[in-house]
Structures are given as structure tokens and as C-alpha cells.
Amino acid sequence: MNKLIQELTKIQKERLAHIEFKAYFFGSAGRKDLITRFGIKDAAATRDFTKYNDLAPNNLQYDTRNRCYVPAEKFKPIFEYSTNRVLSTLAEGFGDGLKGYEVSGLQCDTPHQLNQPDIKIVSILTRAMKLNRVVEITYNSVSSGKTTREIIPFSLVDTGLRWHVRAWDRKRERFTDFVVTRIEKAKMTIDFALEHELSSNDKYWNEFIEIELIPHPNILNKETIEIDYGMTCGSRLISLRKANLGYVLRRWNVDCSTDYSLKGMEYQLALKYPEKIDSTIETMLLAPGYKLN
Known about the structure:
By secondary structure, this protein is of the alpha+beta class. The protein contains 9 helices and 11 strands. The longest helix is centred in the N-terminal third of the chain and has 17 residues, at 10-26.
């Protein structure tokens, strides 16, 4: 962060960082973004864009048609970003619930994440999502190695273990998930998504399934599990996107075997009626103990 940025007031940094964030990850930024986010007047928003352009004259260019600023070809962020914070913001929105950004003073430790997506890759994917554009990627797959593909991304997915991007894959001609850390290179093309490649046509993304979770039969004090997971009458009903079902079951170590045969203290939950789950749901291959019907 250069000296000129350090000389800004805290609120100036927040507003200028917001301009850059919107442009960097959403592909555009306008005065309305600042007015809505910070409750400032139109004139103040104009001054903020002028200030940002003074600090980074090569970063933004004005789109006269849409009346907003978009990243220039030589765009280079002037603020430093935390990958986890960026992904959290993209997933949950700006801010932290109530207005205010002071440190609470409480200790909060989180498990270390073994993989960190490349923030440049993330920015290309998110901009393409906003614009329904095609992205050319170099992808490393466990099964097929390194390949070049054209995808149309429309959502990031946090599986709890790693980040995926849900997209139409032109190579396999279907909707599927790509592990973001396996994307080696990404370039947004000038092409737009075709009608059948839009997320509205993704069956498993748009359809939801209700599952019932119960304490694992091997648990002695089942009441503890019922309290822990907010169960009512010994079970918990959850509605999930079909596309994400296997990720959730894996994250929470839910025993999905028909006879609940998985052993170990990590299996505190079991899936009721696993035989009723649609075996065509791709991510169910990740569900502990699940076998195709």
C-alpha cells in the first residue's frame, strides 16, 4: 500500500476500497454503489471516484453506455486483499451484520485451510458471472490431467473444505463443478453464454431436496447430538440444492450407508432413508458410505 493511501482517512480508505472491490470482482463500479453502501450524497461519491482515479489513473475507464467505471486493461489493485475475507464477502455480502468495523477484542481461531484460491482467478470468474461471459481455463483434473476448457461460471460454492465454481462445461456439455485451486489459468473471452448454458437450465442447481438427519445409532447419548444440531423429535430436516448435497453430507461426516455401518467418533450423524436419494446427483459420490442404487 503506497504512502498516498496511508494518508487517507479510514472512511476514505473504505470508500475507495469499495470502488476497487466492485470493479475488481464485479466488473463495474458506480456512484450508486457508494451511495447505497455508505449513505453519502452524490457529490461526495463523485469526489471519491476522482480521488481513486488520482491514485490509480490506469485502473478504471468510464463506460459511457452503462454510466459506470469498469476495469481497464492494465488494472492493478492498489489495496491488499485477504483471500478468505474476499470469498466471505462474496458469499455473505458486505459488512458484518450491524454497521461498525471495530475489533471485538475476543480471540477467534479458525482451522488452517490447506488450499487458497488465486485471487486473480477468482476475480475473473466473478466478473464473468456478472456478465454471463465465457471463460477459457487451463484446468488440472485428477482423472484427465491438464486440459483447456471453455466454461460459463455462475456461482462460487464453499464446500467447507475448498472452493468450487459451478459452471457449464462446453467440453462435456453439462453443468458441473470445478475446483478453483485447480484452475491454472483463466481468461474471460468476448463471447456470451448461450441460452442453454445459463444457470436457469441447471436442473440439479435449481432443484432442492429435503433430507432428514438423525443421531448416529452408535451414539450412546443421542440427546447430546439432538441438542448439538438443533433437532426436534430426534431428527433435523434440511433443504439443500441437489448439486451441493454430497458436499454437505461429507463436511458433516453423515453416515449415508443403508445399515449405518461406518465406525468412528466422527460419525455423529446419519442420513435417514439414504436409499431414497437420487443416485444421479453427482456429488453423492462424496457422501460417506453412500452406494449407488
